[in-house]
């Protein structure tokens, strides 16, 4: 089977590695890929938001299966377009992708199906926003409706600030069209975790719960990023929380989608906030997390590509899937200045050999013609370790971090700190 991977981040490099290990895959190509992917497979240029170009590429390359990494092409209907020309693809169709692409759609969906989440109100008019905010409890959360690369969510400490944020989103268009409608919602005070499912209609496989670290600074301080590291399984999802998540969130969500006439096939990533033992939905994503993928796929005993193919064909058999009894951690090596502006083009030094159960996943890298790998993004690398305990996984990952270098590389030294403190 010839596979095409769409995307260019650490998630896609992990997907590529899974393809290289899969007995089902005879050839894998990627578009557009990154520096690490280019060393392992042929990478072709592509604007992932250009759906006709993606279909044309898949046809020209005669691929048998497409794995879509990022949310933007999913929200634009790339899977529908590929299926229309007979090419199976992993990822939800356009209707199902609204669960990530529209926060107001999702809030309506959650409330309509009585799935635990923060109470929220959709607002398009600034005067309505101000009236609503006057009587609201603080902090309050304001969200731009559409995809905003993780930046469209602002937590406001008081009315003055919230009023300004509402004004910026609705009138000043700070988030472009995404901000024409906003969601104002109750702040949930708890600990966050992520639940990743591979779904085929009502059937699903639940991967280990994970936790990522979104803030740039140690101790979870400073501005939000795409994620500075992650680990799994996350013990904050206790067996009780896990079961509640299945009964009160996963099952009602899949039943609700079915009742609404939406067929979901692909990854459903559920961001939950655990408030006094009660999991509540913070957000849905309709693709694998980045950097969560880097720790989840290695914990599967089964071939993830086979699972993706089964999901896409509606043939998933969840009872047969096995997970490894192990822990995994990924540390993100980011460019100096990230998540604000940063420089690119710094040469990266890699160790000659890797210890077992470690990996270097490329995210924002580029391969020059002479084979040198340089930085080309904010999150540059994901450095992973797998071990029998989280401590062992962390030790392996951090030991490898010490052997990788580029000018200005910033890492957080405390990934997994809450769970490590409890171990
Ligand atoms: P989202 O893009 O909706 O996942 O929001 C981004 C981040 O904002 C989440 O990962 C949470 O850390 C935070 N967040 C979003 N909604 C809430 C909420 N209602 N209460 C507390 N924190 C929230
Ligand atoms: N790491 C969070 C995400 O992929 O959305």
Structure in words:
With 423 residues, the chain is α+β, with helices and mostly antiparallel strands. Among the domains are: 2-94, Rossmann fold; 125-180, ATP-grasp fold, A domain (Dna Ligase, domain 1, 2-Layer Sandwich), CATH 3.30.1490. It contains 14 helices and 22 strands. The chain has a 5-stranded parallel β-sheet, sandwiched between helices. α8 (126-134) packs antiparallel against α9 (159-170). The longest helix has 21 residues, at 239-259. The radius of gyration is 21 Å and the shape is globular. The chain starts with a strand and ends with a helix. The model has no long low-confidence stretch (mean pLDDT 95). Bound molecules: adenosine monophosphate and glycine. Glycine (GLY) is lined by residues 212, 227, 285, 289-290, 292. Glycine binds at residues 212, 227, 285, 289-290, 292.
Describe this structure in a few short sentences.
Among the domains are: 93 residues, Rossmann fold (3-Layer(aba) Sandwich); 56 residues, Dna Ligase, domain 1 (2-Layer Sandwich).
Find the count of extended strands (DSSP E, 2+ residues): 22
Structure ligands: adenosine monophosphate, glycine
**Major pleated sheet:** 5 strands, parallel
| Overall CATH architecture of the domain at 2-94 | 3-Layer(aba) Sandwich
Question: Which regions have little confidence, pLDDT < 50, spanning 5+ residues?
Answer: none
Strand order of the largest sheet: 3-2-1-4-5
The outline comes out as: globular
CATH class group of the domain at 2-94: Alpha Beta
Computed structural class: alpha+beta
Number of helices: 14
For the residues shown, what is the average pLDDT? 95
Spatial extent as radius of gyration: 21 Å
Strand content: 25-35%
First-residue to last-residue Cα separation = 43 Å
CATH topology of the domain at 2-94: Rossmann fold
Give the fraction of residues assigned to helices.
25-40%
């Amino acid at each position: 089977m010839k596979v095409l991977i769409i995307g260019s981040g650490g998630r896609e490099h992990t997907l590529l590695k899974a393809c290289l290990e899969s007995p089902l895959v005879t050839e894998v190509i990627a578009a557009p890929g990154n520096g690490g992917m280019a060393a392992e497979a042929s990478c072709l240029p592509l604007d992932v938001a250009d759906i006709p170009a993606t279909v044309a590429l898949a046809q020209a390359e005669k691929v048998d299966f497409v794995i879509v990494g990022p949310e933007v092409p999913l929200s634009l209907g790339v899977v529908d377009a590929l299926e229309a020309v007979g090419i199976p693809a992993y990822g939800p169709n356009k209707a199902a992708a609204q669960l990530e692409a529209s926060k107001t759609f999702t809030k309506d969906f959650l409330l309509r199906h009585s799935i635990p989440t923060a109470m929220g109100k959709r607002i398009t008019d600034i005067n309505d926003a101000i009236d609503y905010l006057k009587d609201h409890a603080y902090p309050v959360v304001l969200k731009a409706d559409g995809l905003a690369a993780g930046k469209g969510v602002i937590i406001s400490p008081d009315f003055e600030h919230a009023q300004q944020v509402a004004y910026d989103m609705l009138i000043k268009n700070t988030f472009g069209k995404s901000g024409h409608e906003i969601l104002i919602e109750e702040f949930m005070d708890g600990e966050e975790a992520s639940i990743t499912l591979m779904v085929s209609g009502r059937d699903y496989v639940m991967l280990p719960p994970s936790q990522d670290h979104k803030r740039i600074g140690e101790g979870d301080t400073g501005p939000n990023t795409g994620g500075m590291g992650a680990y799994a399984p996350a013990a904050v999802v206790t067996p009780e929380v896990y079961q509640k998540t299945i009964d009160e969130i996963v099952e009602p969500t899949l039943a609700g989608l079915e009742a609404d006439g939406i067929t979901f096939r692909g990854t459903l990533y559920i961001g939950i906030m655990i408030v006094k033992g009660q999991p509540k939905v913070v957000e849905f994503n309709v693709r694998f997390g980045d950097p969560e993928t880097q720790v989840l796929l290695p914990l599967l005993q089964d071939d993830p590509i086979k699972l993706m193919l089964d999901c896409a064909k509606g043939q998933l058999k969840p009872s047969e899937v096995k997970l490894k009894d192990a822990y995994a951690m990924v540390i993100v090596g980011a460019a100096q200045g990230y998540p604000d502006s940063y420089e690119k083009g710094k040469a990266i030094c890699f160790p000659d050999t890797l210890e077992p159960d470690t990996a270097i996943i490329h995210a924002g890298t580029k391969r020059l013609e002479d084979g040198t790998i340089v930085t080309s993004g904010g999150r540059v690398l994901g450095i992973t370790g797998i071990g029998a305990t989280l401590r062992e996984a962390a030790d392996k990952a951090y030991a490898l971090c010490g052997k990788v270098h580029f000018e200005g590389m910033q890492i957080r030294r405390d990934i997994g700190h809450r769970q490590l403190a409890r171990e």
